[in-house]
Write a structure and sequence with these properties.
- The chain contains 5 helices and 5 strands.
- The chain is of the alpha/beta class.
- It is globular, with a radius of gyration of 13 Å.
- The structure holds manganese (II) ion (MN).
């Protein structure tokens, strides 16, 4: 998947600055973005908006991102959706917890404006190449 590949990206992020920054960077890279500010809204949009990938902030008010990831994995409609955790805590010990919750990968914050979109697309490409049945066509 090149940087020109068109995806629908669902971003679940409660921090408005991070949400807008991630949205701007992905849209500038030609992607379509839908936004959720809570896990509950994210779960709803993951079903209704048919995203190609979910970017999941782990620190959310109420239900956190790990619980939301587990909920997506428990739902037949969303259980195979690629999920990339956005975390400020991407240290060695946390990687295991993130992957065990059902995330396919993670990207550490703060967001690097120069590389963010390309890294997301690269992560999605890697996830889909490992599990080609995940590819969703509109
Ligand atoms: Mn947060």
């Amino acid at each position: 998947m090149s940087i020109g590949a068109k995806m629908r990206v669902l971003i679940v992020e409660d921090n408005p600055l991070n949400l807008e920054l991630a949205t701007d960077l992905l849209e500038a890279a030609g992607q379509t973005v839908c936004q959720a500010r809570t896990a509950e809204e994210g779960l709803r949009l993951a079903q209704s908006a048919m995203p190609d990938v979910v970017l999941m902030d782990l620190g959310l008010p109420g239900m956190d991102g790990l619980a939301a990831t587990k909920a997506l994995r428990a739902n037949p409609v969303t259980k195979r959706l690629p999920i990339i955790a956005l975390t400020a805590h991407a240290m060695k010990g946390d990687k295991q917890i993130i992957l065990e919750a059902g995330c396919d990968g993670y990207l550490a914050k703060p967001i690097d404006t120069r590389t963010f979109a390309a890294r997301i697309l690269s992560l999605v490409e890697g996830i889909k190449s490992r599990q080609p049945h995940l590819t969703q066509c509109p």
